[in-house]
User: What shape does this take?
Amino acid sequence: MKKTLLVATTCLASLLLFSSAGLGESPAPYVLGFTPEITGRRAEMGIANKRGALLALEKINAAGGVNGRQLKAVFYDGQSQPVTSVKNTKRMINVDKAIACMGYTSVGGTLASIQTASDGETLLFSAGPAIVTGGATKEWLFTVVPDQRIASVPILVQNLLDRGCKKVAYIFVDTAYGKLGVGAFKAACKKLGITPAIIEEYSPQAVDVSTQLAHIKASGADGLLITGNLADTVKVMKTARELGLNYPIVCDYGIVGPEFIKLGGDLAEGVVSTSLKALVAPDLPDNDVQKKVAMELYDEYTQKYKTFNLYPGHTWDQVMLVAQALKKVDPKLDPSKEDDLVKIRAQLRDGLEGVQGFVGQNGVFSFSPTDHIGLTEGCYTKVVVKDGKWRLYEE
Assistant: This one.
């Protein structure tokens, strides 16, 4: 009996030892860290960011992952506070051992966190527009969102001119996003050979923008472009109409989504903005190179969440692009080992710079060592609120 027990115990120990050596164990996953803004004034964007990431991760993992490894996501709420995004970035790098830090709904959260990501030699992949060239820290910063210089402001200024406006006014929220917008507005006016009627700004905490709108009215403007977040943009529009500014108003792309239509009500009808094409996927012509991927995300998202906006497309692109770049990473490197993790992070960054012609939601991406946006003018399309829905704009 004792001999039988000894043999059984020895066999069990051998089996456990053999199992711990690798039999039946799954390879360590690649960890992706996300810090979208789930709460705060950008929550409608951050919630959609998280949903888009989950849809992309589910698709990739169902197909076997990358390099024989699954992609594992960890999510933290950026709370619409840059300081929180910085804390989350440190945790994703040092505690979760993420190979990339992603999400970053806002420009402010992105810019506040880039030094931390750079110090940790870890990719920071933004879901907001950001200046991504110049300076040592920008080596690790990429974004999937084309900035306002190529994707919104010049297109919207031209739209106002095409609709007969002669004197275009501009008002922007005093945030990093708004400051990028005003720079794009000045550049667009210079390129188009026009002089702005007036430029006004307001605080994101402002409860009254009547003074700024009164200045715009007195300027003699006959067209208005707003760069703001969802609720404050609606507030600016409401005040403008109450003051009798009945000329065309267009809005920078930060407001695009079903929430704007719901909050704006009748004010939203006829508003023109720009968006990635997935927002109006069913309206795209069949020969559009992005229609297939746009319809894929549009159908999956609307089936699960009933409505669609542009923000799931940002994190969908992030995950898909990281998966593409991971194919160039040495598959023998183990992300659970510190030395290998350092190499994976570096190879992932280098691999992303080599991605060419990738058809995504925000456009067709071609990155390079000097271009960490990877998109060109025309990647976004004009959209308009028509009969309570976002539709492809027709001239």
